[in-house]
Write a structure and sequence with these properties.
Helix content is 43%, strand content 12%. With 545 residues, the chain is an alpha/beta fold. It folds into two domains: 76-342, Rossmann fold, CATH 3.40.50; 353-512, P-loop containing nucleotide triphosphate hydrolases (Rossmann fold, 3-Layer(aba) Sandwich), CATH 3.40.50. α17 links the parallel β13 (450-455) and β14. Residues 1-34, 58-102 and 523-536 have low confidence and may be disordered. Residues 368-515 form the Helicase C-terminal domain. Residues 159-340 form the Helicase ATP-binding domain. InterPro entries: DEAD/DEAH_box_helicase_dom, DEAD/DEAH_RhlB, Helicase_ATP-bd, Helicase_C-like, P-loop_NTPase, RNA-helicase_DEAD-box_CS, RNA_helicase_DEAD_Q_motif. Keywords: ATP-binding, Helicase, Hydrolase, Nucleotide-binding, Nucleus, Ribosome biogenesis, rRNA processing.
């Protein structure tokens, strides 16, 4: 209820004021009230105009966002399809299709893929990086590629996928540049996510697992080269070398990248507690087929279970072949991976390698070898790699060639690790251009200028033959792989003939006499008496009447 006394006083005051005042003041009073009213109206008008402007701005924003979300958007169609294939509980964000390389059109990409026989299995559209300038890598990272004119096919196809934070399976021939295909994106990942903090890491964010110490050392060196300009360092962990020295290096350097063989890595983590892998968010499984062939499947599983990032971890797997064991590994540990394969999924040799197979008797191999060296190593300066099968055989060949005046050295399992490293370094810098090796050098020996590979003794498997031949014709160059084949090797004749034919190489007539039958590949544990079983197949219930 209003106060009636105050109302009465107000009305009385207004009457007295009206009786004592003249007409002029009345007019001024009405004029002042009108001005006040006009000011109020103007404020209301300004307020309405501001509100209208805000509403218009909101509508414009909404309209622009709706235009980006329309079903006709080219970026959303692949993402919509991909979401159907992503595994349950997959919380990793799916990037839009790569559009970084504006210079590469879909037509150019298709032509590039067809030319190099590249297949990219993905529902996203990834355009290749055909030039280094099209990559997102900084100039500091690209210094590692200064000796190359352009990316290799596997790099061109894989870099857009890996830099889009997708899991990748890379299948390519030996000598195709696979190391830089994952090493440069790993450095780029560290630079983007950690910046200057990547120079010292209590827990490494990047882990690269390799099957052999030679391959691990080679990868480590390339990671150092790529990360040098950004202060990003790497530590290599492998057996046959002092654990104490490696532990000391881990404590001193606090590296962002660990390159390791499975056995030594587990030893340092489980037994010495010298390393914590819980922060690894970028994992590389290099030469996965080789690791599985060597019986490292259990070790790989144990290592991956130590990594704490789960579905947020990016996993990159590279392999020269795509057998069932590698497919099972990828299915277990990779999240909706993009598969990039060059050529056939079956094992293949670089087309730039000229394969020459010579059927010889076992007693004449020494003479044949010296005859070939007079032809291939006439200057005594060019690099030639001779493969033997056994350690004692490699030592014997080394001694024989030294007696004939050749400047040579050897690497095999009976030599200490420092001796092996010294031999590889001497071979790399050319001070000792003739190297005799067992299959410890069949993978991981990345020396671009090896002109000739001589297989003195045929290896135990056709896979090892492929990787031996892959030591030449690297970095876009050509090379020759000359192989001695004896009657003792006849069980490999069918696979070798198929290999030669697929590469359009000459098949000797006296090789055909051993037959073209391909023996079933034996299991590493169960020999030929095993049956491959699909792990996804449902068990059949048997009912007895």
């Amino acid at each position: 209820m209003p106060d009636t006394g105050s109302v009465f006083k107000k009305e009385k005051k207004q009457k007295l004021s009206a009786s004592s005042s003249s007409d002029a003041p009345k007019v001024e009073k009405h004029k002042g009230s009108k001005e006040k009213k006009d000011k109020k109206d103007k404020k209301r008008k300004d307020k309405k105009e501001k509100s209208a402007d805000k509403d218009a701005e909101k509508k414009n924003r909404k309209r622009s966002s709706e235009s980006n979300d329309t079903p006709d958007s080219s970026n959303d169609k692949p993402m919509e399809k991909l979401s159907k294939k992503i595994k349950p509980n997959h919380d990793k964000s799916v990037p839009a299709p790569n559009q970084t390389s504006s210079a590469v059109t879909a037509a150019v990409a298709q032509e590039f893929y067809e030319k190099h026989n590249i297949c990219v299995t993905s529902e996203d559209a990834f355009l290749p990086f055909l030039e280094f300038s099209q990559t997102p890598f900084s100039s500091s990272i690209l210094k590692a590629c200064k000796s190359f004119s352009k990316p290799t096919p596997i790099q061109s196809a894989c870099w857009p996928v890996i830099t889009a934070d997708r899991d990748v399976i890379g299948i390519a021939e030996t000598g195709s540049g696979k190391t830089f295909a994952f090493a440069l994106p790993a450095i780029h990942f560290l630079s983007n996510k950690y910046g200057e903090r990547a120079s010292k890491c209590d827990k490494p964010p990047v882990l690269i697992v390799s099957p052999t110490r030679e391959l691990a050392i080679q990868t480590h060196e390339q990671c150092l080269e790529a990360g040098k300009g950004l202060g990003i360092t790497s530590v290599c962990l492998f057996g046959g070398s002092s654990k104490g020295a490696q532990i000391g290096e881990l404590k001193k350097k606090k590296p962002a990248i660990i390159v390791a063989t499975p056995g030594r890595l587990l030893d340092l983590v489980e037994n010495d507690q010298a390393l914590d892998l819980s922060e690894v968010s970028f994992l590389v499984l290099d030469e996965a087929d080789r690791m599985l062939d060597q019986g490292f499947e259990k070790d790989i599983t144990t290592i991956i279970e130590m990594l704490g990032q789960g579905l947020n971890r990016q996993t990159v797997m590279f392999s020269a072949t795509w057998p069932k064991s590698v497919r099972n590994l990828a299915d277990r540990f990779l999240n909706s991976p993009v598969k990039v394969s060059i050529g056939s999924d079956e094992i293949a040799i670089n087309e730039r390698v000229q394969q020459i197979v010579e059927v010889v008797g076992g007693w004449e191999k020494n003479r044949k070898l010296t005859d070939l060296l007079q032809k291939y190593h006439k200057s005594r300066k060019n690099r030639v790699l001779v493969f033997a099968l056994y350690k004692k055989e490699a030592s014997r060949i080394e001694g024989m060639l030294k007696d004939k005046g050749y400047n040579c050295t050897s690497i095999h399992g009976d030599k200490a690790q420092n001796q092996r490293l010294d031999a590889i370094e001497a071979f790399r810098n050319g001070s000792i251009p003739l190297l005799i090796a067992t299959d410890v050098a069949a993978r991981g020996l990345d020396i671009p200028d090896v002109e000739y590979v001589i297989n003195y003794t045929f290896p135990l498997t056709i896979d090892d033959y492929t990787h031996r031949c892959g030591r030449t014709a690297r970095a876009g160059k050509k090379g020759v792989a000359h192989t001695f084949f004896t009657e003792e090797d006849k069980k490999h004749s069918g696979e070798l003939i198929n290999m030669l034919r697929s590469a359009n190489m000459t098949v000797p007539d006296n090789l055909l006499k051993f037959g073209t039958t391909v023996k079933k590949k034996e299991h590493s544990s169960y020999g030929a008496f095993f049956k491959e079983i699909d792990p996804n197949a449902r068990p059949v219930k048997i009912i007895f009447d």
